[in-house]
Model the fold of this input.
Amino acid sequence: MGKIKKVIKDNNLFLDLLNVILGIILVIFIVLILIHPTNTILLKLAFGIGGLMNILNSYKIYKQKKTPLIALSLFMIGLIVIFCGVFLIGA
Done:
């Protein structure tokens, strides 16, 4: 277990690992939404996780200092997705 933590820390893979975990959770929520289409709480959570993944990706791109405009646009898209999920779904 210590080797895995060392590899993640040395290669700055924490955001990637977090994105993979959130992606797996998002797929589970989407399958549950397909099974129970009237459940708006799962839909809001799926939108929230999708927006959070966009925001995490924007932070990763911003840290690379290559294309800050793309990072800003991903951040704004993430906020819009979260807004749509929280305020527009099931209104």
